[in-house]
Amino acid sequence: MIIEVTVDELAKLMKKAAGVSVDPKELKHASDSPFGTLGLDSLGLLGIVGELENRYSKPLPPDAERCKTPREFLDLVNSTLKTGA
Hints:
This is Phosphopantetheine-binding protein. This protein is an all-alpha fold.
């Protein structure tokens, strides 16, 4: 089974964990924009990290909560989930 967090899932997590509504199409288009321009702050990102750690029962690297853009975050999360690190 391949585990991968998609842009659509990230948009849902942003709503659930941080209360930030972002259209998945907008998020995909803005994947290299800073999270702050999308309305997500560091506490919101920390909430998303916690949700993913609970969902997959795997810790994410400390760098996950310091990611600046959706693309950087998804690349790190997905590579971590694929390697099981």
